[in-house]
Amino acid sequence: MYCLDTNIAVDILRGDVSIQEKLARIKLQKLSITIITVAELMKGAYLAQKPEAALSLVQKFIESVDVLPLSTRACLLFGQHQAQLNKKGTPVTDLDLLIASIASCERKVLITRDKNFKHIPEFQGEIW
C-alpha cells in the first residue's frame, strides 16, 4: 500500500528514529520502493566513505522491500505530468516524477519529505 521515496529510504538506512516511529504508527505491512530509488541508493552507496559497507546495508534494505518496476504506463504518465508541470512553470526533477509515476501506476501511496511532489497532478502521497 505504501511506497517510500528515496529520501525516506535514506532516513531509514541512517537509523532516523522519527521516521521509524511514523512508519510504526501507520502499521505498515511490506513496504515498497521503485527501481529509481534502487538506482539512487546504489549511487549513494558508491559515493560513501566506505562503499562496501554501504552497499551491504543498501542490499539488505532492498531485499526487505518490494521493488516496483518502471513500466510503459508509468512512462506515459511521467511524460503527461512533466509536460503539464513545465507549462505551469513548476517542473519536478525527472527522477522524482518517475518515482511518483511508478507509485501512482502501482496504486501505492508515496511517502516523501519532498514538498515539490505537491505540484504533481493527482499526487497520491504523504509529505512527512
Descriptive overview:
The chain is an alpha/beta fold and 128 residues long. It has one domain: 5'-nuclease (Rossmann fold, 3-Layer(aba) Sandwich), CATH 3.40.50. The protein contains 6 helices and 5 strands, in the order βααβααβααββ. A 3-stranded parallel sheet has the order 1-4-5. Strands 2-3 form a two-stranded parallel sheet. α3 runs antiparallel to α4. It is globular, with a radius of gyration of 15 Å. The protein starts with a strand and ends with a strand.
Q: What share of the residues does DSSP label as strand, in percent?
A: 5-15%
Number of domains: 1
Helix content: 55-70%
Q: Strand order, biggest sheet? A: 1-4-5
Text of the CATH class: Alpha Beta
Largest sheet: 3 strands, parallel
State mean pLDDT (0 to 100 scale).
95
